[in-house]
Each structure stands twice: as structure tokens, then as C-alpha cells.
Write a structure and sequence with these properties.
Helices cover 42% and strands 16% of the residues. The protein contains 13 helices and eight strands. An eight-stranded mixed β-sheet has the order 1-2-4-3-5-6-7-8, sandwiched between helices. Strand 5, helix 4 and strand 6 form a beta-alpha-beta unit. It starts with 14 loop residues before the first strand and ends with a helix.
Length: 292
């Protein structure tokens, strides 16, 4: 049974649990927007939640769109799983759309959410009418530092799997509390971060290290914008631009900031995201045909 959720700050929508038949129970936050507004689904990054990754985006985006943010598998209050696969996360979004009666959506993916958005288009093409890919890439394992880091993931995952859940959460709580004294909405932020499964998150890191869309990303046939975080030290900007170059007609929207700019500097990120959505958020099939 899903546990209680701490109330978010006023500018973040309250969430709810949704059962995905045959898949498990997930958790979403939704800002409904104007009547008949096109749907935007926000896909968060590694270790985050839908609420945390997009906390500054719900209010400004909901003036034009129906905004839905999901907690991915093992993250936040998302589906609990013994094995993390990016493709399963994409299929969860498709199943969620079916449950909510959404037949067409724009997928917005940040970091890990980028591969999930790409896979959502690849596996459920009739559902996706546009893509916004932020701080992300076609693949994430290239230079020696990245290879060394990702090579440790299987050992970290194994260790976490055999560590009792209570112990894992206690360690995470102590680390977070030490780093976040006096932060506004601190209790909610801590609850969001504590609610994830560290072992599943470590597995997610491994899945990211193995991901590559280079063989098919050039087939993307929907309006696409790539938000490039120009000071990113985690996903190199040149790799983000390579992603944009690989997608026919993709628009690049630069934003001055590091990988965490979505949370750290909303005054820079939110206008860039809004601009990107103006390119990618086609509200119907006619928008797709016009792009083509």
C-alpha cells in the first residue's frame, strides 16, 4: 500500500497514486491548465522526482498546457521494481496516458528523462506529437571518466540490494539533512528524495550507461527542441548539440547553466523551456503534418 506523501509547497500540485494495470502503482502531479489545452508530460532525471525536477515549471506551463509529471520506476513514489529498464519507464508513460484518456502528448525529458522521452516516441509513435529534450544526449558513456564511473555501478547496485531498506533510508536522510539546513520546503524535499529506492536508482544509472539511440534517433518525425545546458559538467554540451544535429529540423534552445539549472536557476530555465515548447508542443496530428 502506498505510504503517505508530505504536502508540497503551494506552487507544486498535490499528487495522486494511479494504478497502471499489469504494471504497478505510480504517482503523478498534474496541473490541468485551460480547457482543451494540449498535454505536456514531464519526465524527470536520475535520482529526482516529478515534483522536484519540475517544481518551478508547473505554474508557468499550466497557463497554456495540461501538465503531468510522473515519478519514474524506483524514484519517488513511482512503480517499485526488481529490475530497472528505461523502456519500461517509457511504457509506463504510455499506460498512464491510456488511463488518463490522453491520446496525444508532448514528451519533455530532462537528463535521464531524455532517453525515456526518446523511447516513448520510438515505442509509441502515435502517442507523441512533439519532443523537448533537456540536458540530455543520444548516449552517456564516452570519455574515460564516464566509463570509469559507470563501471562501478554494478557493484554499487549489488551492495544496495543487500542492504536493508531501513538502513539505506537512514543513511540517505542523514546526508540530506546535513546538506539542507533551513531550506524552504525542506521537509517536502527530504520526503521526495527519501522516498526513492537507492538500489533501483543505482540500476537506473547503469541503464543510462548502456543506452544509445544513435541507430534510430534520426527517424524522429515530430517537432523537436533540444534545450542545451551550456555550462553542464555532467552531460557535455557538445553531446547535447550532437543529439540536436541527429534529429531532422530540431531546434536548439541554449540556457546558461549547469546540469541542475532546472532547480537552481528557474529564471534562466523556465523561459528556455517555454520557448522550446512553443516549437514542440503540437496539439494535434495537423501540427505533425505541417512539421513534415
Amino acid at each position: 500500500m502506498p505510504r503517505a506523501v508530505v504536502d508540497p509547497p503551494s506552487f507544486v500540485p498535490a499528487g495522486r497514486f494511479i494504478e497502471l494495470p499489469g504494471r504497478g502503482t505510480t504517482f503523478i502531479r498534474e496541473a490541468r491548465g485551460p480547457v482543451g489545452a494540449p498535454t505536456v508530460v514531464l519526465l524527470h532525471g536520475l535520482g529526482a522526482t516529478g515534483g522536484l525536477n519540475w517544481l518551478w515549471c508547473f505554474e508557468p506551463l499550466s497557463s497554456r498546457y495540461r501538465v503531468i509529471a510522473i515519478d519514474h520506476r524506483g524514484h519517488g513514489h513511482g512503480v517499485r521494481t526488481r529490475r530497472f529498464r528505461l523502456a519500461d519507464c517509457a511504457d509506463d508513460v504510455a499506460a498512464l496516458a491510456d488511463e488518463l484518456g490522453v491520446s496525444s502528448l508532448t514528451a519533455v525529458g530532462y537528463s535521464m528523462g531524455g532517453p525515456i522521452a526518446q523511447l516513448l516516441w520510438h515505442r509509441h509513435r502515435s502517442l507523441v506529437n512533439g519532443l523537448v529534450l533537456c540536458a540530455t544526449s543520444r548516449n552517456f558513456r564516452g570519455n574515460p571518466r564516464e566509463s570509469a564511473m559507470f563501471s562501478l555501478v554494478p557493484f554499487v547496485t549489488a551492495g544496495l540490494r543487500f542492504t536493508p531498506g531501513v538502513a539505506r533510508r537512514a543513511v540517505m536522510s542523514r546526508v540530506l539533512e546535513a546538506r539542507m539546513p533551513g531550506v524552504p520546503a525542506r521537509d517536502w524535499i527530504l520526503d521526495e528524495l527519501r522516498s526513492g529506492d537507492p538500489a533501483a536508482i543505482a540500476e537506473a544509472a547503469g541503464a543510462i550507461s548502456r543506452y544509445s539511440s544513435h541507430e534510430w534517433i534520426g527517424d524522429v518525425d515530430v517537432p523537436t527542441a533540444v534545450v542545451v545546458t551550456e555550462q553542464d559538467r555532467l552531460v557535455p554540451p557538445h553531446r547535447q548539440r550532437k543529439l540536436a544535429e541527429s534529429i531532422p529540423g530540431a531546434r536548439v534552445v541554449p540556457v546558461r547553466g549547469d546540469h541542475g539549472v532546472c532547480v537552481a536557476d528557474p529564471r534562466a530555465f523556465v523561459p528556455a523551456l517555454t520557448s522550446a515548447l512553443s516549437t514542440a508542443a503540437a496539439s494535434n496530428v495537423a501540427g505533425r503534418r505541417q512539421f513534415l
